[in-house]
Write the structure tokens for this entry.
Amino acid sequence: MDTDALIRSLNEDLELEYRSVVQYVSHIATVKGAEYQSTLDELGVHVRQELDHALVLARQIDFLGGTPSTRVPTVVCETDARSALTQDLQLEEGQLQRYRERVEQATEAGLPDVAESLAPLLQQTQEHVRDLRSALGTSPATAQP
């Protein structure tokens, strides 16, 4: 993968982080029910981490000579708690796969510093997936596509 392609992919990742921030904020504000309070508190932590992810991505894009995107993909937010958490899980699972690919691509491109900068995003996204699966009572084997 050449540097321009990596920059494009990182910008797509950045846009998804923006979407995550907006989606989480909306779900935290609209999901109701005492049974979801601890989950909503955890989503508050996720929001801050997603913003940190966006900063890391933007800095890596700039480091590679690109311009960080400012586009936020369309966000359709759910108000039903289970649907909202499922939507969040699907977004996180997609990001998890993308970060695995991105770390590998940066490594293959001879950019170990970029790969190392992305590794914490991968780890935190794995934690987000686990948190959401736990909240939904699903495991990787039972998770719906």
The domain at 3-136 is CATH 1.20.1260.10 (Ferritin).
